[in-house]
């Protein structure tokens, strides 16, 4: 289990992190979302020891996270950390050896992940000769080649085509199913919503919301969607809250009194639909950080 407790970090006059705490349980996929500069990358770099926090702790299974624990962590930085003029297969084996694998085990692991990520036929190519999407696949393979016990991935889906996105999503699901805690950041909130067991939203260095997507939806602003046959356009004028006519005979109503809305709708005509629209993660994000 990864625990980040009360992290604070300043760069000169700028506060990058202000008392950030989060927990990623074994087998949990944690989606970390926020605007550019919100503090996601700084948090991940501190967890990996790339940056030193001004205060706070990073714990692995209750103990301070040190070099030994980080050797068993798969880290994918937002900026690619690959050698452009080194062959892909050799590079994967090299990174596996840096994490303590034997030469024979490293070559076998490299071949396994190249095949798994659809790059077997590119093993002898240089990284610089790959498309950006395939470079991203190699970067993911580097984070997995040593069979990590924790995955920390910063924008892993950036630049990937839909097929590569599906491949990477499957890999993350397999790792979490094997008990590996996974924390990843992404601006693609539809992917975060689909893949994550838990989500943390960070803004200006503060965690402003966290929990499962369902929990966040329940806390979000749910709107009523009402369809009525034969209703006059003005039927909802007297209702409290915001009313929007989104289609012919269909309205979205932001009101806290659903029973009053229902009564007015039934008086206006034949109600064919009445229910709440669950907010998406995009809606929750906009509402939370605005």
TrEMBL record:
PROSITE patterns: ABC_TRANSPORTER_1 (PS00211), ABC_TRANSPORTER_2 (PS50893)
Pfam families linked to this entry: ABC_tran (PF00005), DrrA1-3_C (PF13732)
Keyword Transport: yes
Record keywords: ATP-binding, Nucleotide-binding, Transport
SMART domains for this protein: AAA (SM00382)
UniProt-listed InterPro entries: AAA+_ATPase (IPR003593), ABC_transporter-like_ATP-bd (IPR003439), ABC_transporter-like_CS (IPR017871), DrrA1/2-like_C (IPR025302), P-loop_NTPase (IPR027417)
MF term (GO), any: ATP hydrolysis activity
Residues annotated as domain ABC transporter: 2-229
Similarity remark: Belongs to the ABC transporter superfamily.
PANTHER family per the UniProt record, alphabetical: ABC TRANSPORTER, ATP-BINDING PROTEIN
Annotated protein name in UniProt: ABC transporter related protein
Species this chain originates from: Stackebrandtia nassauensis (strain DSM 44728 / CIP 108903 / NRRL B-16338 / NBRC 102104 / LLR-40K-21)
